[in-house]
């Protein structure tokens, strides 16, 4: 029996995207071309495979049943080809899309850009929002190369690697009338606070850490990004509780000072995730190794800060 292997990536794109438009964009082809591929798939398998719904498409029961086999076959083909390829970072010309959470975007991404400039100047990065969950980041469909942050309940088609653990500290203005070289529990609870509401699990992690210690905060103002904090702190008597390396960066501002948290608030993990299709991709493996090295470097900095 003759069949076209090029049809199977189209099948998986439709299976994962559940949208002809998004699947065509992912494959870099037109919608009519993808519709033609779907018609040929239907002829091959003698099944509708995907049914139109109000929002996108839904796979048939048969499509659901064959998807794992096709995914495995494509992954084996990828592994066969990619393991034979050599990668030379200094000669590479490639675009990677990365979804960092707000913490990683400030702390790790500048280091990664600097490393690539020195070792792989032809590699370009495009950053996309991490979002409130992994679906929004594009990592689950494979359109995003790496997600960097905290991965909660990742699906089976993602590989997750732990990069580092990070702790928390406090920042106040340097001439604060009530805070000298430390903050005790009573002071912390009397102060008014700037609260950061980033997307994802960083927010939940801080609330959980405070709850575990029975520590209360009087939140005066909430902002959506770490970079809004310095100006808020510099002109008020407020306090902010932030990741240590964020505070370490803010300490370069002469208007601010960084202090240990009044109690041990524990740590939170920083992780890297990628779609299984990139497991044997030589360029992707090299990029992951660079990110992992930077994670080790940052972990040491966090311990020293």
Automatic annotation (TrEMBL):
Coiled coil: none annotated. GO terms for molecular function: DNA binding; DNA-binding transcription factor activity. Residues 1-60 form the HTH lysR-type domain. Transmembrane segments: none annotated. The keyword Hydrolase does not apply. Signal peptide: none annotated. Keywords: DNA-binding, Transcription, Transcription regulation. PANTHER family: HTH-TYPE TRANSCRIPTIONAL REGULATOR LEUO-RELATED, TRANSCRIPTIONAL REGULATORY PROTEIN. Belongs to the LysR transcriptional regulatory family. This is DNA-binding transcriptional regulator, LysR family. It comes from Halomonas cupida.
């Amino acid at each position: 029996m003759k069949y076209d292997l090029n049809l199977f990536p189209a099948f998986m794109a439709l299976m994962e995207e559940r949208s002809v438009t998004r699947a065509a964009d992912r494959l870099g082809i037109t919608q009519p071309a993808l519709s033609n591929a779907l018609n040929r798939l239907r002829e091959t398998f003698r099944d509708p495979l995907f049914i139109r719904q109000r929002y996108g498409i839904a796979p048939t029961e048969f499509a659901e049943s064959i998807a794992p086999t096709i995914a495995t076959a494509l992954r084996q083909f990828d592994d066969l080809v990619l393991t034979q390829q050599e990668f030379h970072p200094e000669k590479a010309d490639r675009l990677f899309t990365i979804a960092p959470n707000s913490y990683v975007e400030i702390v790790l991404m500048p280091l990664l850009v600097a490393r690539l400039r020195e070792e792989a100047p032809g590699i370009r990065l495009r950053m996309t929002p991490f979002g409130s969950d992994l679906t929004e980041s594009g990592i689950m469909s494979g359109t995003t190369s790496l997600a960097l942050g905290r991965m909660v309940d990742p699906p089976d088609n993602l590989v997750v690697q732990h990069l580092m653990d990070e702790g928390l500290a406090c920042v106040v203005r340097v001439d604060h009338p009530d805070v000298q070289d430390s903050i005790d529990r009573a002071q912390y609870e009397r102060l008014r606070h700037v609260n950061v509401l980033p997307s994802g699990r960083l927010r939940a992690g801080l609330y959980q850490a405070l709850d575990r210690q029975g520590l209360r905060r009087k939140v005066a103002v909430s902002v959506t990004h770490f970079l809004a904090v310095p100006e808020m702190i510099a002109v008020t008597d407020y306090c902010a509780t932030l990741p240590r390396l964020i505070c370490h960066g803010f300490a370069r501002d002469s208007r601010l000072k960084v202090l240990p948290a009044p109690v041990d608030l524990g740590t939170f993990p920083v992780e890297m995730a990628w779609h299984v299709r990139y497991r044997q991709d030589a360029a992707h493996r090299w990029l992951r190794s660079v990110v992992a090295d930077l994670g080790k470097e940052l972990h040491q900095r966090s311990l020293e800060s």
